[in-house]
Design goal:
With 243 residues, the protein is of the alpha/beta class. The protein has one domain (8-239): P-loop containing nucleotide triphosphate hydrolases (Rossmann fold). It is 35% helix and 25% strand. The chain has nine helices and nine strands. The strands form two sheets. It has a six-stranded mixed sheet. Strands 2-1-4 form a three-stranded antiparallel sheet, with helices on one face. The longest helix is centred in the C-terminal third of the chain and has 16 residues, at 168-183.
């Protein structure tokens, strides 16, 4: 599908995906504007991972149309790979590989990579560059995964639960860096279970449950549409998880 609007980074139209008889994503529509932080929310099993895999072209959709940066994610995987960054939760690393070695490997895969030393400094990992990845703390590994997603110098980056395991200061530092990257034009597609993070970062959100869209719009609109004054309570109301 050709890009329908120059200002959109991602367009999904009427997406359906099932595994056998189980419908995982149903008649889903979404659009992500260039330069925004878009949040994908939903309880475990909502279909978030499958949706992202379909958008990236790593999972074949049953029906529907998807455009990412004007490209077809299945037909144009190689070109898209150069322009999109992805942070995985627990990527597999060779035993004893160091932080600087994995950054060098990542850099070698791309034409115009960012300076990974600068990224390591920004995310508080420069002092750990000679350390084995396996010896990093959970929070340090999490920050490294974000660095690896940013090394390609992407136009669009997918970040999955990016501040899990980080303390309050480290979370705020990551938020600040993402705001800076957004100001430079990076489009960020974020999944998170932390509602304060979503409120602080996301321009718009989509709430998903059982593969169906419950809400799409701004955090403020989600609160207005609910009987609650706070976003966390509004989210729980939408997903039916209220006490």
């Amino acid at each position: 599908m050709e890009e329908q609007h120059a200002g959109l980074a991602v367009i999904v139209q009427n997406l359906n995906k099932s595994y056998g008889t189980q419908k995982v994503v149903q008649s889903l529509n979404l659009s992500v504007q260039k330069g925004e932080i878009f949040g994908l929310l939903g309880p475990n099993g909502a279909g978030k991972s499958t949706l992202i895999e379909c958008i990236l072209g790593t999972q074949r959709r049953d029906s529907g149309e998807i455009s990412v940066l004007g490209l077809n994610p299945q037909k144009d995987r190689k070109v898209l790979f150069e322009r999109v960054g992805v942070q995985f939760q627990e990527p597999y690393f060779q035993d004893k590989i160091t932080v600087v070695e994995i950054c060098e490997v990542a850099s070698s895969l791309y034409k115009n990579p960012l300076d990974y030393d600068e990224l390591l400094k920004s995310f508080g990992l420069y002092e750990k560059r000679k350390q084995a990845v396996s010896e990093l703390s959970g929070g340090e590994r999490q920050r490294l995964f974000v660095v690896l997603a940013l090394i390609p110098n992407p136009e669009l980056v997918f970040l999955d639960e990016l501040t899990t395991g980080l303390d309050t200061k480290a979370r705020r530092d990551v938020w600040r860096h993402l705001e800076k990257l957004k100001a430079q034009g990076l489009t960020i597609f974020l999944t998170s279970h932390y509602m304060d993070e979503v409120e602080a970062l996301c321009d718009r959100i989509l709430i998903l449950k059982h593969g169906e869209t419950l809400f799409q719009g701004t955090v403020a609109e989600a609160v207005l549409r609910s009987p609650h004054d706070g976003f966390e309570d509004a989210y729980l109301w939408f997903t039916g998880e209220e006490e």
